[in-house]
Amino acid sequence: MGSIQIPELTQPPDLDEFQRQASLMTSCTLLWKELSDHFDSLERNLIKKSDIIKDKIKTLEAETNASLTSLEQRETTIENSVSIAIRKVEEALKAAANAVQTQEFQDDSLLVRLKRFCVEMDWLGFWEFVSNRKKEIDVMRAQIPVALAECVDPAMFVLEAISEVFPVDKREDCGVDLGWACVLMLESLVPVMEDPVIGSERAFVTPSVKEKAREIGEVWKESLERRGGVENVKGTEVHLFLQHLVTFRIVEEGDFDLCKKLVVGSAWRKQMPKLAVSLGLGDQMPDMIEELISKGQQVDAVHFSQEVGLVDRFPSVPLLKAFLKDAKKAATSLMEDPNNSGRAALLAARKEQSALKVVIKCIEEYKLEAEFPPENLKKRLQQLEKVKTEKRQPAVATAANKRTRACNVGPMPPAKAGRITNTYVSSSPQPPQQPPPQPMFVRSPSHTQYPLPPYPAIPPPQMYGTTRSPSANHYASPAYSPEAAPHSPVFSYPPTPPMNYHPPAAYGYGAAYYHL
């Protein structure tokens, strides 16, 4: 048998080298695991993004199909809509001709008078009629659209009517703000210009009218720059400009930044949330709401979030509570203000009352009673109103007591009685009889002053309301005359001193003396 040769180990194995190799294998394993996890994460992200892109493609396809369908509908309905519009114009022309010939508008009701202006295309008379009836705005809001439907060209009619004050006020006396009348006309024009077939998706505005409306908007924007920017514009003007853009559908992409600033600057107006949506600012609404919250306008932020459906992102109840907390802090700061020490309590109460009323109204408007019960707020409001009423009563009583005579012989004469020209008292002798006490008048500082004669000190009456009654023969002497010689100090005594105050030094004291 052959023998097996075993190789000889020339060098024993090294333990350090073995440990180094084991560590290297561990590092490679960890690195491989990290790379595997990284590639798995990349794969998942790619799949997720791919799904998002597929969803967007489906959404775009759906929107494209909807747009194509709408365009086809608009195209197919153009002829029908135009024919309806032409028929309405012809009917308006015939009605105008019949009205001029037969004078059918004999009734003086509001609607009939509005229709008369519209049929005759008397935009100036229409403007003066509407602008002078602000108290009837609620009635006109329902009747002006009916009247504008009688116009041959309602869009041009309204543009001519509001040109009296927009974009530049042409009146000589610009003291009265008539922006409300312009807004009312523009809002009433919207349903009149709707397409008779497809509705609000398309407005019947001729290119010439739209171009004129766009020029008017540019003129107003230029005047805005001359006046110093958005901060120096009234809320009514902002509302009018934005409603002008919405009514004639002339909002351009370059106007979004300006519109956003205008909306945020006048967010307290009730119509601003709806106008913002109509202007196409729905995508920018979250930023606008956050800006309102940062400015302390939490109630306005609630209105905007409710309008666009962002209540989950901006809950209403925490915003309202934050608003009340800020109002309470403001009221406390007013109480601590040394410059308003006299009116601090009244101003603080008014501040808190206003905040409570706004929050209660907001809760009732959006049905938030379950989340934010208003009972405690109403109780607090009643407490503030009760305290306010109690504070007014002492003031009224004090004012009523200011005209009480200190000498206890009746009420004071009118404040300007001393200046009456026929207050002269005759110094001729009177028959010896006991006349009733004559009313005494204090002379005005403008007349000659008489020196105060010395007299012995007389103790004041012990009780307010008692009257010293001299004997009957004391009244037999002639009545005091300002033109008479000064009295002797021996035979005169001063009137009863007034309570807790002294008469002004400028008034003569001699007119109040009795002759003894």
Please identify the structural class as seen in this structure: mainly alpha
Shape: flat
Quote the beta fraction. under 5%
Give the low-pLDDT segments: 395-433, 439-516
Concise account of the structure shown:
With 516 residues, the chain is mainly alpha-helical.
Explain the overall architecture:
- The chain is mostly helical.
- Among the domains are: 315-402, no CATH class; 405-459 and 469-516, no CATH class.
- The protein is 55% helix and 2% strand.
- The protein has helices spanning 15-102, 110-119, 123-131, 137-148, 154-162, 179-192, 207-226, 235-248, 256-265, 272-278, 285-294, 298-308, 316-336, 344-365, 375-401; strands spanning 194-195, 199-203, 492-493, 514-515.
- The strands form 2 sheets. Strands 1-2 form a two-stranded antiparallel ribbon. The protein has a two-stranded antiparallel sheet with strand order 3-4.
- The radius of gyration is 44 Å and the shape is flat.
- Residues 395-433 and 439-516 have low confidence and may be disordered.
